[in-house]
Amino acid sequence: MNIKRPIPITDLDSVDWWSAVSRHEFVCARCSDCNVWRWPARAICGACGSMTWEWQELTGNGTIASWIVNRHGFGGAFPLPSTVVLVRLAEQDDLLLPGGWAGSADGVDLSVGLSVVVGFEDIESETGDSDHAVLSWGPRHG
Ligand SMILES: [Zn+2]
Ligand 1 centroid to 94 CA: how many Å? Predict the structure, then answer.
């Protein structure tokens, strides 16, 4: 089900990432010289200074590092309450990505270190443009 809400705002560094997410592909920029993952995507590697990189697929596995429970409506763009999580990715300890939480709306089922897996939520702009998605994390079973 598509939910109408504000669509992601992209820039030169992030437009390809958001395009991948809209296709339900979970990728991250990775330095071609030292293999460090770069998040958010940027031209220069923070570890080695290299300007070469490529998009690579991530496993989609991580653990909960933190979360917030929104109780403000933001003009009705989100159901209330809604929870946003910060996930530490399995690939690299300092790789933390935010996203929605597919579990309990008020986050009562969350705990730091909980194993999660990425999912995607299709969204539709208020003007009817539907080629967008955002991350939606959920508990990893097994
Ligand atoms: Zn590097």
Answer: 14
The structure's pTM equals 0.90
Task: Tell me the percentage of the chain whose pLDDT exceeds 70.
Answer: 96
The Å distance, Cα 28 to ligand 1 centre, comes to 14
Q: Ligand 1 centroid vs 97 CA: distance in angstroms?
A: 19
Q: What is the C-alpha separation between 35 and 28, in angstroms, rounded?
A: 11
pLDDT for 126 equals 72
Determine the distance separating the centroid of ligand 1 and the alpha carbon of 91, expressed in angstroms. 15
Q: What is the distance between the alpha carbons of residues 38 and 89, in angstroms, rounded to a whole number?
A: 12
Helix %, strand %, coil % for the chain, to 5?
A: 10, 40, 55
Task: Convert the pLDDT of each residue in 99-130 to its tens digit.
Answer: 999 999 999 999 999 999 999 999 887 777 77
Pick the CATH number of 59-142 from 2.40.420, 2.40.50, 2.60.40, 2.130.10: 2.40.50
